C-alpha cells in the first residue's frame, strides 16, 4: 500500500494554497473597504436586526448543511457579514471599551489563524513564546516591576483578574490548591470595581459574600482616609484580607483611584494590593497622563488589557506581578504529557488556558509599527477628545457632567428624561453607539472615545441629536 499520495487525493483536507491566496485577497480587499467606509462614517455604526433576519441574510443554514463555499461566494458572504456588524472604526462608535484595532494587530490574527501555534508550551511555538516574553518584559519595565516581576498574557481581563487573584490566594493560603479554600478569606474592593472581580471571588471558592466593600466618595473612588476602618471591619467580622483592589481606571466612570495612597496602606498592613489597570494602565505611555498611575509600582499584581488602549484586537490582557514567584505559585498541576523536562520557557504553569493564542504578536506588531511613542500619542489623543466632549457638553443647556474626565470615558445626563430611553433612540437608526452607567445610584449616559476618527464634528452632532430629542426638562 502506498504511503504517500498526491494532494489531489485529499480534496478539502490538504490546503489548496491557490484557493487560500484568492480568499485571502478577497478578505484583505473586503476589510480594507470596510474600515475605509467605517472611518469616514458612511454607513450606520451599528445594526440591530434580530438574529433570524441576520441568519437568513447570511444564508447560514444552507452553508452549514451544504458547504461548497468558493472565493467568489465567500466575497458575497463577507460583505453581508461585515455590513451586519458593529463598526468600531466609525467616528460615532462611542460605546464599549474595545479597541478600534490597528492593522498590525489584525495581521497578527491572520498569521495566528494560519500557523496556529498555541505557545503556552514553548515547543508548540518558540517564536510566538519569545515574542510574548519580550512584550511582557517591556510591560514589566513600564509598570516599574523590572527584573524581579513576572507576567503572562491571557484571553481577556476577566481571566487576567482571576489569575492575579489566584496568585494572591496562593500567597495568603498556599495550601488552598490541595486542601480547599478556608472560609475566612475576604476580598476588599469598591462597589465600582469590575464585575469580573466578584465573579473571580466566586470561582475561587470565596463566595460573593467574601467581597467586602471599601468606602468610596460620591464618584466611586476609594476613600484612602477610611481604609483603616474597612480593614478593621473585615477583621472584626473574623476574616483575613486576601487582597485589596483598586481601579486604574474605573470601568464605569474612567476615574483613577489614588494608587500611591492605597499602595502605601497595603504595604504598611501586609495586604496584597491588586490594581485593575485593564483600561487605564496604557496611560503609562502618555507623558501628560502618566501621573494618574503614580504608585502603581507598589502593586503586588496588576492587569493591563492590550485590546483596549493599545489597539490590539480582542483579546490580549497581561497579568503582571511584582515578584515572579507569586505568579508561578498561582497554579499547581500535573499532566505527564505536558509537564516534563525543562519547563523554564513554558508559560502553561501561569495560565488557566492550556492552548493559548499568539497574543504577544498582536502587541509586538503594533509596537513595531507605531512605536511606544505612537501608542502613547493615541492614548493622549483619545483622552483629549473625551475632555473636549466634556467641555462642549458643559456649554449647552440641559447637560450635566458630574466630574471632569481623567481618561477617555465621560458620564453625563441630559435633562430629567429617562437616560436609557435617550440611548435607545440614539441607537435605533445606527447613528451613534454609546452606553450608560450608574453614579451614586443615578443613571447617566456614557461616552467612551475609542475610535481615532472621532472628532469635534462627531461630538457636536451627538450633542445636537440629544438636545433635539426633547427639551431639557424631559
TrEMBL record:
GO terms for molecular function: aromatic-L-amino-acid decarboxylase activity; pyridoxal phosphate binding. SUPFAM superfamilies: PLP-dependent transferases. It holds the Pfam family Pyridoxal_deC. The modification N6-(pyridoxal phosphate)lysine is found at residue 308. It comes from the Bacteria. Keywords: Decarboxylase, Lyase, Pyridoxal phosphate. GO terms for cellular component: cytoplasm. Its cofactor is pyridoxal 5'-phosphate. Transmembrane segments: none annotated. One of its GO terms (biological process) is amino acid metabolic process. Belongs to the group II decarboxylase family. This is Diaminobutyrate decarboxylase. It comes from Streptosporangium roseum (strain ATCC 12428 / DSM 43021 / JCM 3005 / KCTC 9067 / NCIMB 10171 / NRRL 2505 / NI 9100). The lineage of its organism: Bacteria, Bacillati, Actinomycetota, Actinomycetes, Streptosporangiales.
Amino acid at each position: 500500500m502506498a504511503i504517500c499520495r498526491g494532494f489531489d487525493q485529499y480534496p478539502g483536507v490538504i490546503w489548496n494554497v491557490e484557493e487560500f491566496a484568492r480568499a485571502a485577497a478577497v478578505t484583505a480587499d473586503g476589510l480594507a473597504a470596510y474600515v475605509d467606509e467605517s472611518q469616514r462614517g458612511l454607513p450606520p455604526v451599528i445594526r440591530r436586526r434580530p438574529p433570524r433576519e441576520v441568519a437568513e441574510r447570511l444564508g447560514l443554514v444552507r452553508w452549514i448543511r451544504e458547504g461548497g463555499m468558493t472565493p467568489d461566494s465567500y466575497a458575497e458572504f463577507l460583505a453581508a457579514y461585515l455590513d451586519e456588524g458593529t463598526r468600531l472604526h466609525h467616528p460615532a462608535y462611542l460605546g464599549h471599551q474595545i479597541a478600534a484595532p490597528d492593522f498590525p494587530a489584525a495581521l497578527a490574527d491572520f498569521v495566528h489563524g494560519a500557523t496556529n501555534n498555541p505557545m503556552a508550551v514553548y515547543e508548540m511555538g518558540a517564536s510566538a513564546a519569545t515574542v510574548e516574553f519580550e512584550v511582557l518584559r517591556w510591560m514589566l519595565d513600564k509598570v516599574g516591576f523590572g527584573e524581579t516581576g513576572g507576567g503572562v498574557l491571557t484571553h481577556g481581563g476577566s481571566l487576567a483578574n482571576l489569575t492575579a487573584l489566584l496568585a494572591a490566594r496562593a500567597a495568603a493560603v498556599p495550601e488552598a490548591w490541595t486542601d480547599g479554600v478556608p472560609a475566612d478569606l475576604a476580598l476588599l474592593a469598591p462597589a465600582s470595581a469590575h464585575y469580573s472581580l466578584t465573579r473571580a471571588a466566586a470561582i475561587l471558592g470565596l463566595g460573593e459574600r467574601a467581597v467586602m466593600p471599601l468606602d468610596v466618595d460620591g464618584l466611586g473612588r476609594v476613600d484612602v482616609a477610611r481604609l483603616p476602618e474597612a480593614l478593621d471591619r473585615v477583621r472584626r467580622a473574623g476574616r483575613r484580607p486576601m487582597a485589596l483592589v483598586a481601579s486604574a481606571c474605573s470601568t464605569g466612570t474612567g476615574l483613577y483611584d489614588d494608587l500611591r495612597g492605597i499602595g502605601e496602606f497595603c504595604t504598611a498592613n501586609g495586604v496584597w494590593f491588586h490594581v485593575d489597570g485593564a483600561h487605564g494602565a496604557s496611560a503609562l505611555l502618555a507623558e501628560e497622563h502618566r501621573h494618574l498611575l503614580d504608585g502603581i509600582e507598589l502593586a503586588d499584581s496588576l492587569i493591563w488589557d492590550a485590546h483596549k488602549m493599545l489597539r490590539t484586537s480582542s483579546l490580549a490582557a497581561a497579568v503582571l506581578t511584582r515578584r515572579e514567584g507569586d505568579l508561578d505559585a498561582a497554579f499547581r498541576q500535573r499532566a505527564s504529557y505536558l509537564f516534563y523536562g525543562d519547563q523554564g520557557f513554558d508559560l502553561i504553569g501561569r495560565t488557566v488556558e492550556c492552548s493559548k493564542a499568539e497574543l504577544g504578536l498582536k502587541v509586538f506588531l503594533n509596537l513595531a509599527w507605531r512605536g511606544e511613542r505612537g501608542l502613547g500619542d493615541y492614548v493622549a489623543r483619545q483622552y483629549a477628545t473625551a475632555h473636549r466632549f466634556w467641555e462642549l457638553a458643559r456649554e449647552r443647556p440641559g447637560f450635566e457632567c458630574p466630574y471632569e474626565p481623567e481618561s477617555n470615558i465621560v458620564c453625563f445626563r441630559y435633562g430629567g428624561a429617562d437616560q436609557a430611553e435617550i440611548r435607545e433612540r440614539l441607537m435605533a437608526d445606527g447613528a451613534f453607539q454609546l452606553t450608560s452607567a450608574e453614579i451614586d445610584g443615578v443613571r447617566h449616559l456614557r461616552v467612551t472615545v475609542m475610535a481615532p476618527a472621532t472628532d469635534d464634528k462627531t461630538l457636536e452632532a451627538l450633542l445636537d441629536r440629544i438636545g433635539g430629542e426633547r427639551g431639557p426638562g424631559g
